[in-house]
Amino acid sequence: FVNRTQPPRPTGFSSAGQAENRLRHAAAFSCYRKSLQKSRTHVTKPWQLHKIKRQVLSLLADTSAFAVTTMLDFYALPKDFPGSQTAPAGHCYQKVAHLEQHLADDIADRRFIPYIQLHEFEALLFTSPESIARILRGNAADITAIRGQFHSPEEIDDDPQTSPSHRIKSLFPAYQKTLHASLVIKEIGIPAITAICPHFQEWLRRLADG
């Protein structure tokens, strides 16, 4: 969650793994510059809907919580996710907005700001194909060509063979999420990600605005 309590306190999100924690800390720092604070983190992987809801509700039970948020991969959403049966067939941004709204309705607390990552965490790494290639000591040409097929890294699809993580792994077999993803995120930086990832940018804006 994010709050405005003084003095500054550690803050937290519900996310899905170690690499996401690197991004969570960077995102929280971005919010901190607008007077917000960081706090507790709950990590569940592989995650189940009822566990995420329990963690979210537990955080919301803290009366000092200004906001509670999630970071869930669109790619990994379970079939019973709220709104999944009625999701529109249009663009990915329409789908994710629909699902986030249904999750918000399910939690029913104005402090809850749901966030689902399009299409998974590794999509954000495609912000800089050069950084991926540099960290993994490989050629940037193929990964740059993939990036060029999409308006935003967030649009890289979630097919089992063409999801962001599978694309990276196919070009860089040595890729290990827990080792390399956080290094790539650190090199890219939050400003570069928000510049071309509008859904991620909107999430940070909502956290900052409360």
Describe this structure in words.
Helix content is 46%, strand content 6%. The chain has 210 residues and is mainly alpha-helical. Helix 1 (18-32) runs parallel beside helix 7, helix 1 (18-32) crosses helix 9 (198-209) and helix 4 (129-135) runs antiparallel to helix 5 (141-147). The protein contains 9 helices and 6 strands.
What is the fold's blueprint, element by element?
Elements (H helix, E strand, L loop, with lengths): L13 E2 L2 H15 L9 E2 L5 H12 L7 E2 L2 E2 L18 H16 L4 E2 L2 E2 L11 H7 L5 H7 L16 H8 L5 H12 L1 H7 L1 H12 L1
Parallel strand pairs: 1-2, 3-5, 4-6
Helix pairs in contact: 1-7, 1-9, 4-5, 8-9
Helix content, binned percent: 40-55%
Low-pLDDT stretches:
1-12, 32-38
> Gyration radius, to the nearest Å?
17 Å
Shape call: globular
Main beta-sheet strand count, sense and barrel state: 2 strands, parallel
In sequence order, what are the helices and strands, one letter per element? EHEHEEHEEHHHHHH
What would you call the structural class? mainly alpha
Distance linking N and C termini: 11 Å
Number of strands: 6
Strand portion, in percent? 5-15%
Helix tally equals 9
Q: How confident is the prediction overall: mean pLDDT?
A: 83
**Spatial order of the strands forming the largest sheet:** 1-2
Short overview:
By secondary structure, the protein is mainly alpha-helical. The protein has helices spanning 18-32, 49-60, 92-107, 129-135, 141-147, 164-171, 177-188, 190-196, 198-209; strands at 14-15, 42-43, 68-69, 72-73, 112-113, 116-117. The protein is globular and about 50 Å long.
